[in-house]
Amino acid sequence: MLGAIARGVSPGRAFAQLALGAVVVALALMFGQRTRALDDILDRAEPLPAEAEREAARATVWAALWPSTIGTTFFAVAALAIDARLAALLAGVLAGMGCAGLAYGLSRLWWERERGVRVLGDRRSNRVFLA
Known about the structure:
This protein has one domain. 71% of the residues lie in helices and 8% in strands. Helix 2 (11-31) runs parallel beside helix 6. By secondary structure, the chain is mostly helical. It has a 3-stranded mixed sheet with strand order 1-3-2, with no helix packed on it.
């Protein structure tokens, strides 16, 4: 958003673009079909196998960021050269992704604590386990 303002977009317009992107994306991610599917998957989670190995934190973070967050950031920076209003909108998309991720993560944490379990996943097999 600050980049858009620096490129000549009025602060009010830049904030409106940011808010639009954030609200639309956050609502789509929090109430979309994929989120409901994740809830269904938790109902079918399996016990964690004894031979399970923990993935390095670096690999987990990279998998969470690539391609959605890193790609959107790239497009937002590129948009500054083309249309600063688009860059502000894409900044909102990033903010919406972050807000939805935080909300979903907190809801999963609450779900885990209520049941006294830990949800773990295997990205390679797309399986979900409870420990």
